[in-house]
Amino acid sequence: MRSKSYCIEINPIPWQRARCRGKQFWDNQVKDKVSYGLIMQQQHGKEPLFKGPLRLDIVFYIRSPKARSKHASLWHTTWPDFDNFLKFICDAMNKVIIVDDKYICSGSFDCKYDPNPRTELTLTELE
């Protein structure tokens, strides 16, 4: 069973719906997804892509808002929602470190405030 951890030291980016003008669709996050993909690819090295059933454990560390009190929760509970962060990272991983995000069938996630924004994830092949 293979497992690998990655750390993307960029402020987590939420997924945004593709835009439409007439019959033309475009994804204005392509550059961000490529940046994330390049960082993950460098950390992945020349190892084969993950495939088959996968577990994804992920923690999004979001920069604390300036208005946040010292006694407030460490948990991120405002917009953007965790699922938008998750959709973005899954799109960025596709064909970069995993064959397809459809293979992710288990996992855990956390969204926390931290002065050092980043995304930490671990992929594990399941038997």
**C-alpha Rg, in Å?**
16 Å
Strands of the widest sheet, in order across it, are 1-6-4-5
Structural class: alpha+beta
CATH architecture field: 2-Layer Sandwich
Helix content: 10-25%
Number of helices in the DSSP assignment: 2
In terms of DSSP E residues, the strand content is 25-35%
Features:
127 residues; alpha+beta; 60s Ribosomal Protein L30, Chain: A; four-stranded mixed β-sheet
Task: Tell me what you see in this structure.
21% of the residues are buried. This protein has two helices and six strands, in the order E-E-E-H-E-H-E-E. Strand 2 (19-21) and strand 3 (24-26) form a beta hairpin. By secondary structure, it is an alpha+beta fold. The protein has a single domain (3-13, 30-42, 50-125), classed as 60s Ribosomal Protein L30, Chain: A, CATH 3.30.1330. Helix 1 crosses helix 2.
